[in-house]
Amino acid sequence: MDSSSPKTTVVVPTYNERDNLPKLVEQLAALEVPNLHLLVVDDNSPDGTGEVAEKLAIDSALPIGVLHRTAKDGLGRAYVAGMTRALQGGADIVIQMDADLSHPCEVIPTMLRILTTTDAAVVLGSRYVPGGAVASDWPWHRKALSAWANFYVNAILRLGVKDATAGFKAWHARTLEAIEVASIDSNGYSFQVEMNYRTTSRGMRIAEVPIRFEERTEGVSKMSLAVQLESALVPWKLRFGKKR
């Protein structure tokens, strides 16, 4: 482990991802990124993902921490808990990504290079910049919904990014501290929007790199009607609510 390099912690929330998590660990370890760590935030998965994570922490060459939460109360809350723990653990860079293998690990070195050599406060893996793509097996209505969601968010908040709802990001620790990540209110996918909004509203720059977003092959999606409704309302609350 190269402790002279910035400590980079990948925060991965899990709920019933016992089949995908070992594959993700293998892919991250293969990157050979110096001083790379993984923090699994498990929401008491009934399928035993938390126990799988603990075993991986013993067996893998990749340093792995496991944060066990007792309740499943949303993606946003899991990320806030994980990012807060990563900062407390001395992370210089925090990467957020899903456990379902939809985010391509091989793009991480590019994200880190841009984050550390430019003025970007955060680098996100984007489906909608040139070179990016959504999964080819997405049905047309899901593609349309994703495109509409990004148009909708940008029309209200003027974020100036192509993929405002992206969940694959590399953050400077100082950016997360500046936007007061521990106080983020949103949950679900609107968490991503609020994080972006707090970043741009403080005059910090979001960079985008192209990714091909893949559909999960194991497990089931966690999207619910409540998550969709919150995602529709949050941009308006951010636009017209009190500035933090």
Automatic annotation (TrEMBL):
MF terms (GO), sorted A to Z: dolichyl-phosphate beta-D-mannosyltransferase activity
Record GO biological process: glycolipid biosynthetic process
The organism's place on the tree of life at top rank: Bacteria
Transmembrane intervals: none
UniProt keyword list: Glycosyltransferase, Transferase
InterPro entries registered for this protein in UniProt: DPM1-like, Glyco_trans_2-like, Nucleotide-diphossugar_trans
Glycosyltransferase in keyword set: yes
GO CC, one annotated term: membrane
Pfam families in alphabetical order: Glycos_transf_2
Annotated Glycosyltransferase 2-like domain residues: 9-169
UniProt protein name: dolichyl-phosphate beta-D-mannosyltransferase
Protein's UniProt keywords contain Glycosyltransferase: yes
EC number(s) per entry: 2.4.1.83
EC category name: transferase
Stated family: Belongs to the glycosyltransferase 2 family.
Reactions the enzyme catalyzes: a di-trans,poly-cis-dolichyl phosphate + GDP-alpha-D-mannose = a di-trans,poly-cis-dolichyl beta-D-mannosyl phosphate + GDP
